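Aim 2, interim progress. The first record below pairs a target sequence with its structure tokens.
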Amino acid sequence: MAQIIESGKSDFIKANVSNSHNDAVAFEVKLAKDLTVAELKSKLEILTGGCAGTMKVELYKGDTCLSTLDNNNAQLGYYANCDGLRLHVIDSFANFSFDNATVEKFELTKDQYEQRTNSVRNYLKQNKLGKYNEEEMAQAEEKRRQQAEEMQKRAELCIVDARCEVAVPGNPRRRGTIRYNGQLEGKSGVFIGVEYDEPLGKNNGSIAGKAYFTCQPNYGGFVSPLSVTVGDFPKEEFNLDDEL
């Protein structure tokens, strides 16, 4: 389902682009919000080597898939209205299979591919995009390093049984008690398990059948250490009888 991420004043967004053939290669582009999804796919066809008519484009925030850009007539701004998101291109041709007995396999050597002027690699080189922009790559690496250091510092503060307040964009601030600090099966990075004071969570301390801690249903949640502030946060009391 398509969704608007958040409002913004700029007519453009900056987004990273990755593709299903090489998830490790991503580069930043500036795109107009009034681009239709069909026009966007045509641009991504040049950048990724996919086919605009068959490609699938997914919108990510970090490692979380927010939506699939499946309406070719919709404008990009309807799906993505802020910077820092990632457009992931899935080339449907990668799913096709051919009979090797009837179709001759076409291959290029590394040197032959380097000499081609109409390749994706040559386009990236000429426009100094992605890994061919040394300054951009250095800045991205420094940003990742700083984020990793901040993540480690914040995680070290999240002691089990400590009181905390959780602030996740798009959600109200919630208070609770830290019940878990560590990795989750099938996920990368460190997560903080919180037992909330109110039923504002998503689980009971379990994910995919595995229990990391125990609490009442909808009182548990797992968030990034960057979303957690540890401190003296007493439980808030709400007396509904006094309301008019």
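The second target in this work package is listed in the same format:
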Amino acid sequence: MGWLTFGYFISYIPYAMLVKALASGVTPLSSQPVDGFELLPASALGQIAVMPVFLLFSGRWRHMRVGGIGGRRIRAVGPETLAAGFFASLIVGSTTMNYTFSGVSILLMLLLMRGGVLVMSPLIDKARARRVAAASWTGLLLSLMAVSVALADVHSYHLTPLAMASVLTYLVGYFGRFEIMSRAAKNGLLATERCFFVEEHAVTPVCLTVLLAAGALAGQPQLRVGFTSFLGTPLAGAAAAIGVTYEVLFVFASLIYLDRREYTWGVPAWAFASLMSGLVASYALTWLAGVRAPGVGQLVALAFGVGAAAALSWPSAVSWWRTRPNSTGAVFRVLFVCGGNTCRSSMAEIIAWAQAAEAGVAYAIRFTSAGVAVTHPGSPMAPRARTALAELGLHRPPGRGNPRHHRSRPLTPGLCGVSHIIYCMTRAHRDKVIALAPEAKGRTMCLDPRGDIPSPEGQSLEAYHRCARHLQQTVHARLCELIGSDVVEASRGKRG
């Protein structure tokens, strides 16, 4: 997420500068301001030209679904990604328009747009029954405070009805896009996310071009100019470059939103990156072309933005600290895998932490768990699983594992990639791990080599007790194997 946010920050700066410079008439190509509607057609054509280049050379086009016409198999898009692409096109078009209004700063329009999306994000999370972490609420609150402080400068600007209508269109686009994405793709399943990303990406600039063309045919004069005489001017190339730069930031933003975590986690990070890039773009244009600088209130708002970023990064920082390699040697990472990650794999993780602490090797091994069929990421451990662990004396186990703190998460290729060994509850789980991360085949195995560990879900408490005792025995056997491994022995030698 850090790299995605940084990429978005870097790519947004040239986009915002290009739009505002053309709309303000401060480019070497022309001293006359260009109307926003005139810019949009060339910008949309620039994005629609570079979009297939990105999909082709990145190889992502292979993730599109396959349809058939007249007996021939072709790449196609689904109805949900077609609808998401329509809403995304509203975002693309209105974002560009929002920076073209005279007398309004880049940073102010960013705050108006991002503030609406910040308020929207927890509402959509709650509507989809997605857990919202405390750090996300804190980041959201600080981000909203940043917006409120910055809006103190609104009296210095003239917001026309058209500008407000453009901001409203932007927010409608985000609401529709997030709602569809929540249902169709934001589930932690890599194949689904990749398909949605590519199909929405392919549809968005096409939808935008069609909408603009329809407006031109309906008689909007500036759009007609944008599709005709404007394309023959030197400014057309600069306007097309707006679409090219938007294509880059669109990639980063889409990947941020598709992260399996709640919108209330990703949206403040995205909003903060936007504010920072808007600040850089605003002062760059002030220095280079004399465009009006942001007001003091907008600068004070950045302090709250920094606080929001710190709050959002806190869970990741804690996780890094807990799993960092220490001075005694490298850390050996063990991953337990089941279906929903609320019962078997989570119990195995807790049991492993406790046994490693008792054996004195918790400094050298890190345990975690995930599921191949997680439907509700962030769900707590099943109550009967916690009860079964308590029977084993693990209600408050030694070491770092705690049943009360567990939250389910879906398995990802990245998680497989950083794990030295992956223990699965069943052969079917092992097959799914290998299908998701083929390179992990040699280090993926069943926790119990004698057979599957059956799921107790939906059964009596005694079934959970049997499962917990089974896991206790198999985890102990596997841990004894690991303690004798070269990695652990090397770490213990350095510790001594």
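The domain at 325-495 is CATH 3.40.50.2300 (Rossmann fold). This observation will shape the mutagenesis plan for the next reporting period.
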